[in-house]
Amino acid sequence: EENMRNPSPEDSTAGAAELDIARLITDHHAEAYRYAFRLTGNAADAEDLTQQAFLIAHQKLHQVREQGKANRWLFRVLRSCFLKSRRKKLPLPAGPLEMDMDDIPAEVNGDDIDRQRLQLAINELPEDYRVVLVLFYFEQLSYKEIAEQ
Length: 149
Prior knowledge:
Helix content: 55-70%
Largest sheet: none
Structural class: mainly alpha
Radius of gyration: 19 Å
């Protein structure tokens, strides 16, 4: 009865109470690393970004309201870390894009994609565009949700 009148701080985070950092890492490390790799374009930076995101997640785990959406929350932490690290660097000017429309295939089979070439192409994009691609394909956000981000 005393707990009913004076809820403890743990009670206010009931949605995240069952989620701890070990479980978050176990459940989401692989997809977080893949997300970080697509953002950064190389393994070392992706490892650093993933580690940084999990450190922040450990500090702010109480912010997770729904355990089932922990991965989306973690993606936001990753994206935020990535953007903060990139703001410190000078932007590269975008070069002209020359493309022959006849060379674009009508359909692409996902199994036929060379993942290394895909990452190299993503790396050539300005970072703002790279983030939009990752939001769309990894987080599966709508155009409206991407614009809000």
